[in-house]
């Protein structure tokens, strides 16, 4: 087995063994991301629309 593949499998095994310890942190991060990502996406869309409207006649 090549060295990079061995590193990946070792990391996956370590993550599987230690997952009960950081599962709650992942759950909280997912909850926060689920709330923030749609809001940030809407803000970014508003920025893009404003930029497009501001530079509409610059062609």
Can you give the mean pLDDT? 92
Helix content: over 70%
Please, how many helices? 1
Q: What overall form do the CA principal axes indicate?
A: elongated
Would you give an account of this structure?
The protein is mainly α and 59 residues long. Helices cover 88% and strands 0% of the residues. The protein is built from 1 helix and no strands. It is elongated, with a radius of gyration of 21 Å. The mean pLDDT is 92.
List keywords for this structure.
59 residues; 88% helix; mainly alpha; 1 helix
Summarize the structure.
By secondary structure, the protein is mostly helical. The chain contains one helix and no strands. It is elongated and about 60 Å long.
Helix and strand arrangement:
Blueprint: H1 3-54
């Amino acid at each position: 087995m090549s060295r990079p593949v061995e590193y990946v499998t070792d990391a996956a095994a370590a993550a599987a063994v230690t997952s009960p310890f950081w599962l709650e942190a992942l759950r909280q991060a997912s909850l926060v991301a689920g709330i923030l990502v749609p809001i940030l996406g809407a803000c970014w869309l508003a920025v893009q629309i404003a930029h497009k409207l501001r530079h509409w006649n610059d062609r």
